[in-house]
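User: Could you check the structure of this?
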Amino acid sequence: MPNASSDLASPSPSATGALSPLAGDFGCTAYLAGAGGCGMRGLATLLLQAGWQVFGADQNKFQVDDPLIAAGMQALAETDQPPEVSLCIRSAAISKKEIAIQQSIQQGARSLLYSEMLGEISKLRPVLAVAGSHGKTTITAWLAWALRRSGVPVGYLVGAEVPQLKGSADWGNPDLPLILESCEYARSFHHLWPTMVALINVDAEHPDTYPRGLPEVRQAFCHFLSHVNDSGKVFAGPEAPDLSSAGPGQWHRSVELGAQEYVGLPGVHNRSNAALVASVLRHFGLEELAVQSSLGEFEGAARRLERIGLWHGATVVSDYAHHPVEVQATLQAAKERWPDRKLHVVFQPHQAQRFHAYRDQFAPALDLADALYLLEIYRARDPQQLQASVEELVPDLVHRRPKRYLKLVADFAIGQSLLQENIEPEDVILFLGAGNVDRFARCLC
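Assistant: Sure, the predicted structure tokens are below.
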């Protein structure tokens, strides 16, 4: 579905020329491979605002009414010969060996990953990087929305749709920070040179990148934090470990919220997120009334406990959670949001490697589900020899809650039949995962 990020993609006086130092032999021109992804869409928006000529290709064909097309991006098929451009930027899902990428490079383009392009931008303007194993999208969106509504024209680049923002990306005032997510996968955030960091938490995650677990992840975060200079700042949330010795940046520990402070997003994890948000907002000089209203009125980003609609009287909700820590936090938040309703959870594990590494954590993470429908693992970047199945969870799930309704679901059609047999009006159906389970949720409504 098209992201509304491009509503703001027309050339902006504050952005025009801002990225011109990156122009090459073919001027301010760029070819984006994998341009349909959320992050790449936001990057396309920033380039268009800066007056660049942007060509975008994606495995999913762009629709003629796509906002990026309306803003000036020229859509290409993945198999099309790319034009001569200065920059060839690709998402992490696109191999440098792809024919179109190689053609672009041979024609003289400088080849960059999405994360490398963000690194280049961080050398040209201040950046506030939101870092952590969980919660990056929520906090990036929360900060951008809260500051913009208070008249602080920061730039932002969010990896999801955010209904309360006019789009997922905007250049803003180049003298103020560009707020963006800094991803630890493949050590992508090591390309960034941020002025400020909002550090949420650090957990063992991405076992394909960090096979040695949490110590290796912590080491990567420490390296990232070393890129903050001695005049920079690191805002650490209540869940963040003490990594203050990792670099010269000034360390600011967020204070947990008081019981009287209202947060509009449900869940213990979101109260912790809100404490970090409040700390950063106060640094930007927001008055306390504006801080408190920002905590109470933010409604979240897409696929973060997102209410899709009603189906046979039941509330359909979609969430991106796929790590056991995220799954547990999401179920806790759902129970807080709908305390008296039966919670049906449709769970699709993401990546065999992640499932294999954290298998023992998934069953406890799913304890709060009143009924479980387990889809097979959504494989992505997995080695073929690694065999894993969601069936491996069944013995532990049964042991923990022997009377709970539990079904293995072969496909969406079977899942829909099972749900229809078991739901009652006023129940909640929560779809969890980073694969294609969201498509299942939306086909119901």
